[in-house]
Specification:
about 180 residues, alpha/beta, Rossmann fold, 5-stranded parallel beta sheet, 5 strands, globular
């Protein structure tokens, strides 16, 4: 049950699994707004290899963006990525998670998580770095959700069927609200 007026839905999953597309489509379907992934913008502007401190900065900035966008939300808010992705990213890349990310994750869980499966073709771009580890990362995200007892729906398939499945998870979660 949400502890706030806006039902927040986070899309998480490995790279190139359609999180951005689904976030945009779901926001349109439900007549609300979505929060783009801040990491992409940050990394595209970074003129050096990223560091652990960059992951913390990205995560904090994403959260601040979300707070701003939430003011425009109508009942629902969709966000392209969230804290668990940052946790796994920091663990995988640096073997350590900055405390600020762990604190944000603990204090601000989402009402529903949509976990996107790596069953779409890999689409390379300059900020993606794990084309051969998508299944492994998918399982890391699933395990993190389950260990924390967080509500999630698995999103598989492509095109309209992928979108329909995501929307069905959202509809079911909303109907279950008191």
């Amino acid at each position: 049950m949400p502890t706030h007026d806006i039902f927040r839905v986070a899309l998480i999953g490995p790279e190139s699994t359609g999180k951005t597309t689904l976030s945009r489509q779901l926001a349109e379907r439900y007549g609300t707004v979505w929060v783009p992934e801040h990491a992409r913008t940050y990394m595209e502007q970074l003129n050096r290899p990223y560091r652990e401190t960059d992951i913390a900065e990205i995560t904090k900035a994403h959260f601040e963006n979300e707070k701003r966008v939430m003011q425009k939300a109508r009942r629902l808010l969709f966000t392209d990525t969230e804290f668990i992705v940052s946790i796994v990213w920091a663990e995988e890349k640096f073997g350590h998670v900055p405390d600020v990310i762990l604190e944000l994750q603990e204090r601000h869980p989402y009402d529903l998580y949509l976990l996107t499966a790596p069953d779409l073709p890999w689409e390379p771009d300059p900020v993606r770095e794990n084309p051969h580890r998508r299944e492994y990362l998918f399982e890391r995200y699933r395990k993190a959700l389950e260990e924390r007892g967080l509500p999630y729906g698995l999103v598989r398939g492509s095109g309209d069927s992928r979108m329909a499945l995501a929307a069905s998870h959202v509809d079911s979660a909303i109907k279950a609200l008191p």
